[in-house]
C-alpha cells in the first residue's frame, strides 16, 4: 500500500496577541477619566447654548461657563491626557521671560500600553471637535452682534485651543517649530496662570521628556 505523506504544518496559535489586539481596540481602561474628558467641555457648550432657557442672569451664565472651561482645561491637561494617551505637556516661563515647551510621553512596552484605541479615539475627537464648535460660536456671536458673549467665546477658544496645540506638539515629540509662530497668538496669561505651580510637576512613570 502507498504510504500517506503528512505535509501539514503545525501552526502555533498565539491567542495572547489576539486578545491584546482586541483589548487595545475595544477596552476603555479609564472610564472615569474618559467621562470627565468629555463632561466639562460638553457641559460648557450646552450651558452656553441653553443658558437663556434656564436663567436670565448674564453674570451667572458667564461665570458658570467660565468655571466649566477652566475645569476642562486643567483636567485635560493634567489628568485625562496622561491616563488616556500617555501624554502630558506644559509651558513655563524662565527667568529671562522666554517661553519653553516641555513634553512628557509614557514609554510603550509589552507590559505598559500607553492607550487603547477606543480611549485614544475619544480623546482626540473630543480635543479637536469642541474647539471647532467654539469657533462657530465666535462667528455666530459676531454676526448676531451679541458682543457681550464675545469675551466668553474667546476664552473658550483660547483654553481649548491651548490644550489642542500642546497635545499636538506633544504627540509629535516636540520636534515642530510651529510653537514659535503660534504661541504669540495664544494669550500669554493663559499659559502663565494655568501652566504654573503644581501643573509643572511630572506625574508619569517611565517618561520620555522633550524640551524646546
TrEMBL record:
InterPro entries: TVP23-like. GO terms for biological process: protein secretion; vesicle-mediated transport. Belongs to the TVP23 family. The chain crosses the membrane at residues 55-74, 122-143, 149-170. Keywords: Membrane, Transmembrane, Transmembrane helix. This is Golgi apparatus membrane protein TVP23 homolog. GO terms for cellular component: Golgi membrane. It is found in: Membrane. PANTHER family: GOLGI APPARATUS MEMBRANE PROTEIN TVP23, GOLGI APPARATUS MEMBRANE PROTEIN TVP23 HOMOLOG A. It comes from Otolemur garnettii. It is a multi-pass membrane protein. Pfam families: DUF846.
Amino acid at each position: 500500500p502507498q504510504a500517506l505523506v503528512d505535509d501539514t504544518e503545525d501552526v502555533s496559535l498565539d491567542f495572547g496577541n489576539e486578545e491584546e489586539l482586541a483589548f487595545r481596540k475595544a477596552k476603555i481602561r479609564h472610564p472615569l477619566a474618559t467621562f470627565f474628558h468629555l463632561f466639562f467641555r460638553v457641559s460648557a457648550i450646552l450651558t452656553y447654548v441653553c443658558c437663556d432657557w434656564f436663567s436670565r442672569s448674564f453674570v451667572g451664565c458667564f461665570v458658570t461657563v467660565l468655571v466649566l472651561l477652566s475645569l476642562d482645561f486643567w483636567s485635560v491637561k493634567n489628568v485625562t491626557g496622561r491616563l488616556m494617551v500617555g501624554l502630558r505637556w506644559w509651558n513655563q516661563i524662565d527667568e529671562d521671560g522666554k517661553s519653553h515647551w516641555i513634553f512628557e510621553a509614557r514609554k510603550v512596552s509589552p507590559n505598559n500600553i500607553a492607550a487603547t484605541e477606543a480611549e485614544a479615539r475619544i480623546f482626540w475627537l473630543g480635543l479637536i471637535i469642541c474647539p471647532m464648535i467654539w469657533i462657530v460660536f465666535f462667528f455666530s456671536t459676531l454676526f448676531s452682534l451679541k458682543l457681550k458673549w464675545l469675551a466668553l467665546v474667546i476664552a473658550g477658544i483660547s483654553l481649548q485651543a491651548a490644550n489642542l496645540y500642546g497635545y499636538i506638539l506633544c504627540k509629535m515629540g516636540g520636534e515642530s517649530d510651529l510653537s514659535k509662530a503660534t504661541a504669540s497668538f495664544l494669550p500669554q496669561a493663559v499659559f502663565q496662570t494655568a501652566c504654573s505651580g503644581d501643573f509643572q510637576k511630572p506625574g508619569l512613570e517611565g517618561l520620555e521628556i522633550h524640551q524646546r
